[in-house]
Amino acid sequence: MRRDLPDSIDLSNIISIYKGFKFIGRGTNVEEFRWTRRFSSPGEFEIRLPFSAEHFSLYERENIIYRRDIGESAFVENIIVLQDLEGRQQLIVRGRFLSSIFERRVVNIPEGSYTPQELLQRIMHENFLAGAGTNRSMEPLVRLLPFDVSGEPVRVDVRGQNASQLIRDTLEENDLGVRVLFNIENQSYDVEFYPPVKSRAKFSFEWNNVKEQEFYSNTQNYRNVVLVGDNFIMNNHIQGMERREVFQSLPRDNSAEYLERTARDALHRYRPRRTLTSSIDAQSLQFEYETDWTIGSVVLMTNRDLAFSHREIIIEILEYFDEQGRHFDITTGDIRKGER
Questions:
Q1: Which residues lie below 8 Å from residue 192, measured CB to CB, with a gap of 6+?
Q2: Low-confidence residues of the chain: pLDDT under 50
Q3: Which of 15, 111, 127, 314 is the most buried (most CB within 10 A)?
Q4: What range does the domain containing 77 cover?
Q5: Are 193 and 249 a contacting pair, CB within 8 Å?
Q6: Which helix (H) or strand (E) element contains residue 118?
Q7: Structural domains counted in the chain
Q8: Angle between helical axes of 116-124 and 163-173 (0-180°, round to 10)
Q9: 120-146, pLDDT tens digit by residue?
Q10: Same domain, 307 and 325
Q11: DSSP 201-240
């Protein structure tokens, strides 16, 4: 029995396709479109549409999908062609946001104490921007926009780590985000690090702008006692079953200040994790997407049954377009560095 074919949706006012910085087409005849935005790591997308030679050529690997409505872009990375029993072919296109370029470098950071600002600047300047004309330089294609972020210094000693993982760890530990803008006029990828922004938006069933919610709390990797080397123990007073230990190697600078900082950094890495995923009513007019809330917004999330009411950072937004229209699933995480 032949299944009903999905109606196509015209996203030509939203999606543009580029080869390098040359415009080559728009998003037409799309059956499904998913665009997942993330605060501290690369987002991803998926487009499903009928197979044709024209579509196959338009969505070549390394071409760029540009969202004109929100100014975000992604590389085409995966192309799949499916054919059903009746011969109908479907093209599936997948890829990740431009911040995935950070995966292209391995970094070395000499042992030292760095604020998030210092560490991010060092990673970018030594591995993506410095040495113009050398094989490792991405200039002038990649530019670092001015940024100003806060955070306590941490002890870092990195050898041969992927830049993307180090950047992501630094951002997540300090409630920071990253975006890489597709600058068509300047023909560059512009990197920007930024803090969350407090929003007036509120989401709950009681406000009638939430359709579904999923609460997630995980203590699988939770640790509350840190042993640094052989002599320093933080939170040694915790006893019995409540005691969850983790060992950290002794830093080269084993002054009391650095021993304590090493332990506090470990407690932060092994903290309990909590997220709340909500399906947002796209028809709700109380708080407008991209005006009142967006990725990185600090919003008020409430659930009366869970006795849950907290300001949370929107760390992920899934936008889903189909023949029924536009849908939103947002994931929020607890603010780890205090109220913003």
A1: 145, 147, 178, 179, 180, 181
A2: 1-5, 338-340
A3: 314
A4: 15-98
A5: no
A6: helix 116-124
A7: 4
A8: 160
A9: 999 999 999 976 567 889 999 999 999
A10: yes
A11: EEE-TTTT-EEEEEEEEE-TT---EEEETTTEEESTT--G
